[in-house]
């Protein structure tokens, strides 16, 4: 499994990770993308998901009710990040919030057919105009007392954010590079 290439690219992995996997990710309501980078006991989690799937809307929060919704959802994520991305509790991991950005304009190519059909359909349902897509992004730093090698990472995104039905997880560690799709919390990564 462990190739020379993985070893060679690792030093720059943590800095590259955000840019790599998300450069070409489509905006699909209900689907989150999570990048996890791990090196021994340290790591990072990067989450990108349509804002609609987190807050129920995807324009900048204007009303008090919307602002409240944003801060509540952000708090749920911060408080439960280690349940949403669940490392084995015996590793003694802690998470620190790096950055949460509620609404980032979706700059994906609008000529993308898959994106187009998904967005038209979803937005038709709740009456938002096409072209107002925003993405939610969050980054966390992870520190564990023990190496995660040999353990499992499980996921519970749907428990805390029911609109998120599917997550696509990309994991990069010094030992492993893999991707899994988790539907309604079912699935894990074996490290
Ligand atoms: Zn959207």
Automatic annotation (TrEMBL):
Keyword Transferase tagged: no
Signal sequence, start to end: 1-23
Disordered as annotated region, ranges: 102-132
Compositionally biased tracts (Basic and acidic residues): 115-132
Pfam family, one: ZrgA
Top-level taxon: Bacteria
Keyword Signal on entry: yes
Record keywords, A-Z: Signal
This protein's name: DUF2796 domain-containing protein
């Amino acid at each position: 499994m462990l190739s020379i290439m993985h070893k060679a690219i690792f030093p720059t992995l943590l800095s590259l990770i955000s840019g790599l996997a998300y450069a070409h990710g489509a905006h699909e309501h209900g689907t989150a993308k999570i990048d996890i980078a791990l090196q021994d006991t340290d790591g990072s989690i990067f989450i990108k998901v349509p804002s609609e799937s987190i807050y129920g809307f995807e324009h900048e929060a204007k009303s008090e009710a919307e602002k409240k919704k944003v801060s509540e959802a952000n708090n749920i994520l911060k408080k439960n990040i280690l349940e949403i991305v669940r490392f084995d509790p015996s590793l003694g991991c802690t998470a620190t919030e790096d950055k949460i950005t509620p609404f980032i304009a979706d700059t994906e190519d609008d000529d993308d057919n898959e994106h187009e059909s998904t967005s038209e359909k979803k937005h038709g349902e709740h009456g938002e105009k096409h072209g107002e897509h925003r993405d939610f992004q969050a980054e966390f730093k992870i520190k564990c007392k023990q190496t995660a090698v040999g353990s499992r990472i499980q996921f519970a995104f749907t428990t805390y954010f029911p609109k998120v039905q599917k997550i696509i997880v990309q994991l990069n560690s010094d030992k492993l590079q893999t991707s899994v799709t988790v539907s309604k919390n079912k699935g894990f990564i074996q490290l």
